[in-house]
Structures are given as structure tokens and as C-alpha cells.
Amino acid sequence: MKKTYTCIGCPLSCSVTVNEEGEKLVVAGYSCKKGREYAINEHRAPKRMITGTVAIVKGGLRRLPVVGTGEIPKQKMKECMSILCSTLAVAPIRAGDIVIPDICGTGVDIVASRDVV
Questions:
Q1: Residues 6+ apart with CB under 8 A from 19
Q2: Which pTM value belongs to this model?
Q3: Cα–Cα distance, 57 to 80 (Å, whole number)
């Protein structure tokens, strides 16, 4: 199986090809070490950062911007976003406060990205 990825590891945006040859991965087209690592990770287990908003009460805003403390597996993104949609935070809350611990068992906490008092 052969796939091509556009690397986002550096500004060059290389077109990196990953070809599975049995148990071995053959990687070509990268200009730096980051490109090779990015393509292998994207091929084996793609991960994404999660950002969004959750509803908040008792504050000056209706929605609280939140962000994950790390990357989550891409296949869990929809489930995680569903949890964000059904979460209600209560003000006051400070930037960095944990809103959802260990979302979907990924080990990633969802934290507030601003203060709401």
C-alpha cells in the first residue's frame, strides 16, 4: 500500500511517500528528519490536536474556548467533539483549568484557554 502525505513538520511542505513492503515501511520524498517522522506517524497512527468551545454559565460569555493538552488519535476525534458539545462549564474558570480530564481515555485533558469570571 502506497500513500502520499504533505508534511507539516517544517515550511518546506514536502510530498512524502510511504510504501508498505510487508512489515517494512519505505519512506521517500522528505527533506528533513521531521518529514520522515511525520509521514511514518501519519501512516501508522494519525493524531490531531483538539480545540473547540463548551457552554459556560455564570460568566460573561456563552461559550468557553478550550484546547487539548496533547494530541488525540484521529479516529477518536468525532467522539471527543461530541463530548465537548455536551459539556457545561461553570464560571469562574481560569485559563489552564481542566474542563474535561482524560477525554475518551486518551490521556489528554481539555483545558480552558481563557479566563471567564
A1: 1, 2, 25, 26, 27, 28
A2: 0.86
A3: 21
Q: Looking at domain 48-112, does it have CATH number 3.10.530.10?
A: yes
8 A C-beta contact, residue 5 and residue 74: no
| pLDDT tens readout for residues 18-73 | 999 988 999 999 999 999 999 999 999 999 999 999 999 999 999 999 999 999 99
- Residues written for the chain: 117
59 grid coordinates: 460568566
Distance CA 68, CA 109 (A): 6
> Of 100, 69, 98, which is closest to residue 83 (Cα–Cα)?
100
Q: In what helix (H) or strand (E) does residue 20 lie, and over which residues does it extend?
A: strand 15-21
Report the alpha-carbon distance of residue 34 to residue 32 in Å, rounded.
Answer: 5
